[in-house]
Amino acid sequence: EFRVVFAMRSSSTLSGAFSFIVQQEAWPYGSVSASLVIPDMPTTGLIPNDEIGQARFIPSSASPVSVLGYNYDATQTNLGPEPTITGHRTLWYRWIAPQRGIAVIATPASPVLPYRNNLSVFRGNELTTLNIVQNGDTGISERQISLSFPVEAGMEYKIAFGGRSSNILDAGPFVFSLRTDAWPYGAFPVVSPRLPISSVPQNDQFDGATAIPSSLGKVTIFDYNQSATTASSSFEPSKIGYRSLWYRWTAPENAVVTIQTPSAPSVGFAHSLITHTGPNYDGLSQLPTGAGSIIVDSTTAGGISQFFATKETTYFLSFTAARSSAFGSVAFSFDATRDQTKPILAVTGKIPKATIAKSILIKGTASDQGGIARVQYRVGSGAPRTASGTTSWQISGKLKKGKNTITLFATDLSGNVSLNKVIKIKRK
Questions:
Q1: CB contact at 8 A, 121 and 102
Q2: Cβ-based burial of 409 (10 A; exposed 0-12, middle 13-18, buried ≥19)
Q3: Cα(216)–Cα(179) distance, rounded to whole angstroms?
């Protein structure tokens, strides 16, 4: 229901007859049967969702939802973290993601809103603890905003719509739509952002690193770095980058870990994913690019790297932007698999095929990315014996008259056994 008021613009005694027409035209923003959130009826001089604490609830529906509002009478003081982000005459909404996926919030492409506006999405419950997820605004020529970001079922978001400036010309009726598209990163467990308790993410600093489950298997991690501090550690920006977010993982056993940032959909900005080892923040050292760390210079590509993780060792990962002006949604996969690579055993020097000696000295090397537990040998069908040394080893085997067979093999710290090295010697 609406009230229409007609009045003179001045107190002039001029008056006369007047007329106006009220006409309802077709709804231009999709099907009229689609879900539509309309403004609550005002009961005071303030619009009900003028304050973040009274944010209008948007139904958690798997189907697309449209939101209709009017912000002429919204206050100028409720600007959120900063007017350049939330705009002016801001109205607030809250939405809980119905499912895991990619949320898409957009103002209409046709007909566009007739004034400059801001559309922003946040995590957090109060103005002082809001973290930006995505935001966009319109200028003179660009009049549509479209924001997309990963979400997990049950996560709550605050949405702010406002005018671009405090001018009354940047206010009026508005519409935006909200939908959740399919999750593009596979059916793996997800590590999602924690609810902010301050104006920066909880994992903005090393000490607040988000825990990746200490188990084998693949997980997908997503986050938002726009509210991260531009330089949140002494590593930045010369060694890591900007707006870093921190994660940690403790290896439950020796494992091969593959980290990967996606290319479809891509992160959207040049970035680095660096793996660190060390007892504490001051003692961190970085794993090399290609052997535990990723550096991606493109805005449309992803990267991949692999490293060997040692049991009970904690690894720290930092995801950073290449530039201070680069930010948005962060995503990467972390895949830890049991070490199944066989160690490599080699014999050094020449071994004679025949000898008159009663014993023989054999030397060699063994290698494995996780370390060698032991090198063993067997003479004939006898019980295994342990060689002296591991990565560099030697044995002294007794020889009987006639043909002798010595079988050598190495075992790594994960229990993987090398291929047998068989040596045949005849004692004359």
A1: no
A2: buried
A3: 34
Amino acid letter, residue 95: W
The closest of 305, 300, 132, 327 to 242, measured between CA atoms, is 327
Are 224 and 149 in contact by the 8 Å Cβ rule? The answer is: yes
| Amino acid present at 310 | T
Kindly give the confidence (pLDDT) of every residue in the chain, 428 residues in length, as a single tens digit, with 9 standing for 90 and above. 888 887 777 766 666 778 888 888 888 887 888 899 999 888 877 888 988 889 999 999 989 999 999 998 888 654 454 445 667 889 999 999 999 999 999 999 888 888 889 999 999 988 889 999 999 888 766 678 999 999 999 999 999 999 888 888 888 999 999 999 999 999 999 999 999 999 999 999 899 999 999 999 999 999 999 999 876 455 544 456 789 999 999 999 999 999 999 988 889 999 999 999 998 888 899 999 999 999 999 999 999 999 999 999 999 999 999 888 889 999 999 999 999 999 999 999 999 999 999 999 999 999 998 899 999 999 998 999 999 999 999 999 899 999 999 999 999 999 999 999 999 999 99
Three-state DSSP class for residue 53? helix
Which candidate, 221, 225, 227, 282, places its Cα nearest to that of 257?
221
For the whole prediction, is pTM greater than 0.85? Answer: yes
CA distance linking residue 423 with residue 208, whole number of Å: 56
Question: How far, in Å, are 343, 370, 423 from residue 415 at the CA level?
Answer: 10, 10, 23
In a 13 Å sphere around the CA of 181, the CA atoms on its Cβ side amount to 12
386/390 Cα distance (integer angstroms): 10
Task: Check the CA dihedral 399-400-402-403 and report its sign.
Answer: negative
Helices (H), 8-131: 83-86
